[in-house]
Design goal:
The protein has eight helices and 16 strands. By secondary structure, the protein is an alpha+beta fold. The longest helix has 23 residues. The protein is globular. The structure holds 2,5-anhydro-1,6-di-O-phosphono-D-glucitol (AHG) and manganese (II) ion (2 copies).
Length: about 325
């Protein structure tokens, strides 16, 4: 069976050539990252880097390696105006004639690295034109304005999942040719589900509405929902959202009373927005208790946000518990 390769797919979808080059650049570097990941302990790249990122989180060696690889690849693309990363304190200006800004989480699910479990790379591409040197302010656009968003899941297969605003497509890396080949053209999330995803160990720290919503799911057939729910938690947003794009479900990383000023764990500009763009493009919903995540006006590049995403009916219900 002959499959459509990523460059052909982008051309068929009439994606602008300058945007194509950014997506292809990200695809290429992700294939290189997957090779490093596959070497694991043999290459001495597991374990801690011995430093903290701007968020005060301990960096893993692979967080730093993946960040440096993506940064170098993007900086080599003339269409990239600037970049922002989880692992970079400040935005990094690139080419003055570039039309795009890229934000990324180089390695999502870092706690999975040392246990040979799934991790990913998340990216968001924003438009930008203008004469002046790029600043953080230029990046602070609502997620709705993304020109493209996607992730690479480094699992048993390496998969690239992207949207340029007309649906979601999945590609699988062919290890023989090094090409990403189309394996799912029209991803759609069913509006109903009986599967949810949350780090339940934080339960006592959640706000009261989230406590009662999850309690009602866990009560199953005997509770107000009248049906049983299953739970899954990979501890890498990429992998949890990938499962939802494949078979449905609800994912949430809620507000937590331990750090009330932090508004959740996940970062708006390189986690919630790109994954949110994909989920909405697949027919799902993406909310914070106060409104749709893609409509949020970001205040800074490392801003955090509580996230509720996935099956449309279930997300609406969860949000309703918060707004009642
Ligand atoms: P990162 O590794 O990029 O810092 O992100 C990890 C995030 C997200 O991927 C995942 O959903 C969550 O942290 C896992 O958190 P827990 O430690 O609460 O499981
Ligand atoms: Mn992450
Ligand atoms: Mn990360």
């Amino acid at each position: 069976m002959s499959r459509i390769a990523l460059p052909q797919y982008l051309a068929n979808a009439s994606v602008a050539p300058d945007l194509q080059s950014v997506i292809l650049g990200l695809a290429e570097v992700s294939a290189d990252i997957s090779k490093s990941l596959a070497k694991g302990a043999l290459a001495g790249i597991l374990g801690a880097a011995g430093a903290e990122n701007v968020q005060g989180e301990d960096q893993k060696k692979l967080d730093v390696i993946a960040n440096d690889m993506i940064k170098e690849a993007l900086a080599a693309l003339p269409n990239v105006r600037g970049l922002a990363s989880e692992e970079e304190p400040d935005v990094v200006p690139c080419h003055t004639n570039g039309n795009f800004l890229v934000t990324f989480d180089p390695l999502d699910g870092s706690s999975n690295i040392d246990i040979n479990s799934m991790v990913g790379t998340i990216f968001s591409v924003l438009p930008h034109t203008g004469e002046t040197a790029v600043t953080e302010q230029d990046f602070l656009q609502p997620g709705r304005q993304q020109a493209a968003a996607g992730y690479v899941l480094y699992g048993p297969s390496v998969m690239l999942v992207i949207s340029t605003g007309s649906g979601v497509a999945m590609f699988t890396l062919d290890q023989d040719s090094g090409n990403y080949l189309l394996t799912e053209a029209d991803v759609a999330i069913p509006s109903e589900t009986n599967e949810f995803s949350i780090n339940a160990s934080n339960q006592r720290h959640w706000a009261a509405p989230m406590q009662s919503y999850i309690a009602d799911l866990i009560a199953g057939k005997d509770g107000p929902r009248g049906k049983n729910f299953n739970m899954r938690w990979v501890a890498a947003m990429v992998a949890d959202v990938h499962r939802i794009l494949c078979r449905g479900g609800l994912f949430t990383y809620p507000w937590d009373s331990r750090k009330p000023e932090q508004a959740g764990k996940l970062r708006l500009m390189y986690e919630a927005n790109p994954m949110g763009f994909l989920v909405e493009q697949a027919g799902g919903e993406v909310w914070t208790p106060e409104g749709k995540i893609l409509d949020i006006q970001p205040a800074h590049i490392h801003q955090r946000v509580p996230v509720i995403l996935g099956a449309a009916t279930e997300v609406a219900l969860c949000v309703d518990y918060h707004q009642r």
